[in-house]
């Protein structure tokens, strides 16, 4: 290395060079990601406003106490509402502004759980009275489902809502310690009202199962809890995550609410205590489906933040072997590094696109539900369950892998990735613990299988039945005829290789799903220990694979994208399919799906997976020069990332140094602990040494 070389100055130069290497038009791809130029401009303007407002300053938050973070969170929420009025923001503008705040806030639960559940399930009478004040944030809400003793098993919740026909009221009661509502976001100190999930008890003790009830929790004048209610915060969470959110507990002691406060758009109770059945047994799941559909988008953007930081750092970090210029190589050029990061980038892009499509599908379902049409409910339930599992599991793993790729500096809080991990890790648990939720996905898959092939699995469906398959079970068409068989695969380079043909890869994913479900149907009486998880993941990845094919076709038709943009995006989405198959090779080998025409042709290897792995390696290598451009297209500002290692200009070492100087421990050269602890220990140790020397002389 040259003696006068400045490694810190080199980082900015490396970032400039990397941006020149990309072949994509960052502006075009960014508009594609944000669903159009107008949506991107709207977000950009809001970022400019919020990032310059001192209320949203992030420089001190790493040293705040939990109470200070909670208070700051509400201060930011209040400021968003002030700006909404001052600047004439639309509801969508305010939603974007709130989403930019990377601290999970109590208001998030109002927006993502309480409000949509209320709007979807409440009677017209209740909507007329409260919908306006909920929308204007005249009241703050939460969604009280999980209890101290029960989470995913909603049917076993213990909180009761007993109907009293004499007074036309429901009595909300927590009969046991384990019936305390627990983990409820915004319940601890913030929410004034809540939607409570409770067992509906009719006169005579008839239990009708869990239903939803609108309950006021706190006074709108003093914010004190109403009589008969005990509530508070459950305490700090692991990794100090969700610090600004007051996840809370609540216990109800015979709290009376008007009969009209049952969310009775579908299921109802008459004045004399008779039950009116809803049009669909699981229609009350609509709110939960909304939350799960939003989690797909969130997983995509959280993953995107982590991988943007990691790729930018890897682009300017030099370590190890030296190149012809005498400088150490940039770590992004090492296969062991880019093989970890580029598939994460691919998943971020796919999940963001998938989340947008899922939200659109949910809105269509809601429109139909409002007219009494429940035909899309079962499909949406199966789809959102599988995607919630897949996307949250992947996001947790990807954020941690992105952090680890940055070595020691990745462990610094200033990298910003540890904070992302702390907030994303509970997503595998809330709204359905993923391993438990696997069972719902499997049940939906088996139901589709048996409706197609009969209870014995030997029936032959008609062509019209096959054409009527939903998107989540479309893979089952492959089992409809004995003449159908998995494709033969061609190893080789470039377009000649089956591993570079996205339609072949999608077909392989569908064959795996079909055979896994068939295996489940045949061995349901004695399944192996991982079959539920493999069926759940396999069927969901087949669904996503088909959607990825549609995405590739869509942006190939997109007139706003240049040919080079399409080529790079196609390779990125192809990488998603390739690595999805690689991660499940045990299934593909178990079912004999890797049918290579010339199995020993690739360098005389006997490994049938080698062609796939070579295709992944070559695809990744071709994407390395595009990595910075693809991360820039995700549109994050430095304020949004709040990361010393993910700086747009690449000046990571200076940023890390500057941030370290703000550590409060550095305010004094000699810490307060010196007199209290350090000095006594040093003195004691020195005295012992002196005593030993004296004893030796004696």
Describe this entry's structure for a reader:
This protein is α+β, with helices and mostly antiparallel strands. Among the domains are: 141-278, Beta Barrel (Butyryl-CoA Dehydrogenase, subunit A, domain 2); 288-632, Butyryl-CoA Dehydrogenase, subunit A, domain 3. It has 22 helices and 15 strands. The strands form five sheets. Strands 1, 2, 3, 5, 6 and 9 form a six-stranded mixed β-sheet that branches. The chain has a three-stranded antiparallel β-sheet with strand order 4-8-7, with no helix packed on it. Helix 12 crosses helix 15 (531-557) and helix 14 (502-523) runs antiparallel to helix 15. The protein is globular and about 90 Å long. It starts with 6 loop residues before the first helix and ends with a helix. Belongs to the acyl-CoA oxidase family. Pfam families: ACOX (PF01756), ACOX_C_alpha1 (PF22924), Acyl-CoA_ox_N (PF14749). It is found in: Peroxisome.
Brief summary of the model shown:
With 698 residues, this protein is an alpha+beta fold. Among the domains are: 141-278, Butyryl-CoA Dehydrogenase, subunit A, domain 2, CATH 2.40.110; 288-632, Up-down Bundle (Butyryl-CoA Dehydrogenase, subunit A, domain 3). Helix content is 52%, strand content 10%.
Beta-strand content estimate: 5-15%
CATH topology-level name of the domain at 288-632? Butyryl-CoA Dehydrogenase, subunit A, domain 3
CATH superfamily of the domain at 288-632: Butyryl-CoA Dehydrogenase, subunit A, domain 3
Helix percent reads: 40-55%
How does the major sheet shape up?
Answer: 6 strands, mixed
Overall number of strands: 15
Protein name: Acyl-coenzyme A oxidase
Domain Acyl-CoA oxidase C-alpha1: 285-445
Domain Acyl-coenzyme A oxidase N-terminal: 30-127
Keywords: FAD, Fatty acid metabolism, Flavoprotein, Lipid metabolism, Oxidoreductase, Peroxisome
């Amino acid at each position: 290395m040259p003696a006068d070389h400045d490694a810190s100055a080199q980082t900015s130069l490396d970032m400039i060079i990397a941006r020149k290497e990309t072949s994509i038009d960052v502006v075009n791809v960014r508009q594609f990601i944000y669903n159009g130029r107008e949506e991107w401009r709207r977000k950009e303007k809001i970022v400019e406003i919020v990032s310059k407002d001192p209320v949203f300053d992030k420089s001190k938050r790493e040293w705040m106490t939990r109470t200070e973070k909670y208070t700051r969170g509400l201060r930011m929420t209040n400021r968003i509402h002030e700006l909404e009025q001052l600047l004439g923001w639309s509801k969508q503008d305010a939603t974007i502004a709130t989403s930019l705040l990377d601290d999970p806030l109590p208001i998030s639960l109002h927006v993502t759980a309480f409000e949509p559940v209320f709007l979807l399930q409440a009677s017209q009478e209740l909507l007329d009275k409260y919908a306006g004040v909920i929308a204007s944030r005249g009241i703050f809400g939460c969604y009280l489902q999980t209890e101290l003793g029960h989470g995913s098993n909603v049917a076993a919740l213990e909180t009761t809502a007993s109907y009293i026909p004499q007074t036309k009221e429901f009595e909300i009661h927590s009969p046991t310690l384990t019936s305390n509502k627990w983990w409820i976001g915004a319940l601890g100190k913030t929410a004034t009202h809540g939607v409570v999930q409770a067992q509906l008890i009719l006169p005579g003790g008839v239990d009708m199962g869990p239903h939803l009830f609108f309950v006021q929790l706190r006074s709108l004048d003093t914010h004190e809890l109403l009589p008969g209610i005990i509530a508070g915060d459950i305490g700090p969470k692991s990794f100090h995550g969700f610090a600004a959110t007051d996840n809370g507990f609540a216990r109800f002691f015979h709290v009376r609410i008007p009969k009209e406060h049952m969310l009775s758009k579908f299921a109802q109770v008459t004045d004399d205590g008779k039950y009116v059945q809803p049009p669909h047994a699981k229609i009350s799941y609509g709110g939960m489906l909304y939350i799960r559909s939003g989690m797909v988008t969130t997983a995509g953007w959280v993953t995107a933040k982590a991988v943007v930081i990691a790729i930018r750092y890897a682009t300017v970090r030099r370590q190890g072997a030296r190149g012809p210029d005498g400088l150490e190589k940039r770590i992004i050029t090492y296969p062991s590094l880019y093989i970890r990061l580029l598939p994460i980038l691919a998943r971020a892009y796919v999940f963001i696109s998938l989340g947008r499509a899922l939200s659109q599908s949910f809105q269509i379902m809601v429109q139909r539900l409002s007219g009494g049409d429940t035909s899309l409910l079962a499909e949406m339930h199966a789809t959102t369950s599988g995607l919630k599992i897949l996307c949250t599991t992947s996001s947790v793993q990807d954020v941690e892998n992105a952090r680890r790729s940055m070595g020691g500096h990745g462990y610094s809080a200033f990298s910003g990735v540890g904070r992302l991990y702390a907030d994303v890790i509970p997503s595998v648990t809330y709204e359905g613990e993923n391993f438990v939720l696997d069972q719902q996905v499997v049940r939906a898959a088996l139901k589709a299988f048996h409706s197609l092939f009969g209870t014995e699995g030997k029936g032959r469906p008609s062509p019209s039945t096959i054409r009527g398959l939903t998107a989540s079970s479309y893979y089952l068409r492959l089992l409809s005829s004995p003449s159908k068989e998995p494709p033969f695969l061609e190893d080789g380079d470039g377009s000649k290789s089956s591993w570079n043909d996205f339609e072949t890869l999608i077909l392989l994913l569908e064959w795996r799903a079909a055979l896994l479900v068939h295996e489940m149907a045949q061995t349901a009486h004695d399944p192996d220990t991982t079959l539920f998880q493999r069926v759940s993941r396999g069927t969901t990845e087949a669904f996503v694979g088909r959607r990825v094919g549609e995405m590739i076709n869509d942006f190939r038709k997109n007139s706003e994208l240049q040919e080079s943009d399409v080529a790079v995006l196609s390779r990125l989405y192809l990488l998603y399919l390739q690595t999805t198959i690689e991660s499940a090779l045990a299934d593909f080998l178990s079912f004999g799906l890797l049918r290579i025409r010339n199995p020993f042709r690739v360098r005389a290897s006997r490994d049938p997976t080698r062609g796939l792995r070579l295709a992944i390696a070559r695809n990744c290598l071709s994407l390395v020069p595009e990595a910075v451009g693809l991360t820039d297209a995700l549109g994050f500002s430095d304020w949004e990332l709040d990361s010393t290692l993910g700086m747009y200009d690449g000046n990571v070492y200076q940023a890390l140094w500057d941030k370290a100087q703000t550590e409060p421990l550095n305010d004094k050269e000699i810490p307060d602990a010196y007199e209290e602890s350090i000095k006594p220990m040093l003195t004691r140790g020195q005295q012992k040494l002196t005593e030993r020397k004296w004893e030796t002389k004696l």
